[in-house]
Amino acid sequence: MKAKSVILTGGAGYIGSHIAVLLIEAGYEITIIDDFSNSSPLVLDRIEKITGTKPRLIEQDLSAPDCVGSICSALAGRDYAGGIHLAGLKAVGESVDQPGRYYRVNLGATLNLLSVMEKLKCKTIVFSSSATVYGELNASPVDESGKTGPTNPYGFSKLFNEQILSDYAAANAGFQVINLRYFNPVGAHPSGLIGEDPKGIPNNLFPYIAQVAVGRRAALNVFGDDYETIDGTGVRDYIHVMDLAEGHLAALRFGLSGNWDGVECFNLGCGRGYSVLEVVNAFAAASGQKVPVKVVGRRAGDIAEIVANAARAEKLLGWKTQKDLNQMCADHWHWQEKNPDGFG
Ligand code: UFG
């Protein structure tokens, strides 16, 4: 049987590269669209090392005006079964300082991809959304019917993209949209060949802890210990990036094998929360390294707790997480120890 072709935007990034590996291993033929603005070309060699296949690449800023024609030409000659769309900017704080750029890039990329997909008659899109669309309006665990109310432009760009996709599906019979609302992706491929490599000072907890453990930073700043949580520090639903990547494959299959059109939305999380201090202790145990902490003030925009109800994904996609916090820490550390400076 001919391999199904899939467009993967943002496929050189942290999450995208793990999805790329699983797609290739599952027999899909993939084309990555990425401009390496927050990733390294080396990732493609690493994907090849893991899978034996180097993915096809279109090096392109997907949000650039007038890029649709050249992307369509580069994609010509194949039937594309679906698009998995991750390309976009993702730093919450930066989005507050540069809202125009965040809306231009994150919405522009989606609109351009929709034009490409329309021209190629590709009717299934899996979109990288985020738990951040829920803001702080819901008690945890939150399910997909939770109220939406992001607290920053990055979060709004995710929600607006969901709206654009929903309107597009309503206007185009046969079009399938699957929005995946990620909770907190962490960990790395078990090979230690790909993983998260943030540029500059990490915004997120796991990469920061990993850099402390490997000796690149002195101590973790714990942003507040006076929340109403088990130990006063923020509680999140961490999900192993391999489980998250499996969720994309399950979502794609759900689209391609299902006789439906319209919009489906799924939380991808474990359904269990851990505090910052619980994560620190688990990481120290898994790595055998010391992780000094310093409690500082709360970070603006943070919420006390958010945990997923991921029952819908289990019921309809047949997907649930397999890897626990220890595995997340062990794999994140394996990647960091093997690549102390990331992709260099
Ligand atoms: N934290 C610290 N110190 C740090 C970094 C984080 O104490 O140096 C704490 C935060 O206060 C929070 C927890 O660790 O309690 C997790 O913080 P992250 O920055 O890792 O993750 P967030 O939950 O704030 O945000 C992440 C992504 C967003 C996404 C959101 C979805 O960064 O893109 O999850 O819930 F939208």
Keywords for this entry:
alpha/beta; three-stranded mixed beta sheet; 344 residues; seven-stranded parallel beta sheet; Rossmann fold
Explain how this protein is built.
The chain has helices at residues 14-25, 42-51, 68-75, 92-97, 99-120, 153-171, 205-213, 241-257, 276-287, 311-317, 325-338, and strands spanning 5-9, 29-34, 56-59, 80-85, 124-130, 176-182, 184-186, 220-223, 235-236, 238-240, 262-268, 274-275, 293-296, 305-306. The protein has a seven-stranded parallel β-sheet with strand order 3-2-1-4-5-6-11, with helices on both faces. Helix 6 links the parallel strand 5 and strand 6 (176-182). The protein is an alpha/beta fold and 344 residues long. The relative contact order is 0.15. Helix 7 (205-213) packs across helix 11 (325-338). Bound molecules: uridine-5'-diphosphate-4-deoxy-4-fluoro-alpha-D-galactose. The site of uridine-5'-diphosphate-4-deoxy-4-fluoro-alpha-D-galactose (UFG) has 21 residues, from helix 7 and strand 8.
Topology:
Blueprint: E1 5-9, H1 14-25, E2 29-34, H2 42-51, E3 56-59, H3 68-75, E4 80-85, H4 92-97, H5 99-120, E5 124-130, H6 153-171, E6 176-182, E7 184-186, H7 205-213, E8 220-223, E9 235-236, E10 238-240, H8 241-257, E11 262-268, E12 274-275, H9 276-287, E13 293-296, E14 305-306, H10 311-317, H11 325-338
Helix pairs in contact: 1-2, 1-8, 3-5, 5-6, 7-9, 7-11, 9-11
The protein binds uridine-5'-diphosphate-4-deoxy-4-fluoro-alpha-D-galactose (UFG).
Uridine-5'-diphosphate-4-deoxy-4-fluoro-alpha-D-galactose is lined by residues 90, 92, 130-132, 183-184, 203-205, 208, 220-223, 234, 236, 276, 299, 302, 306.
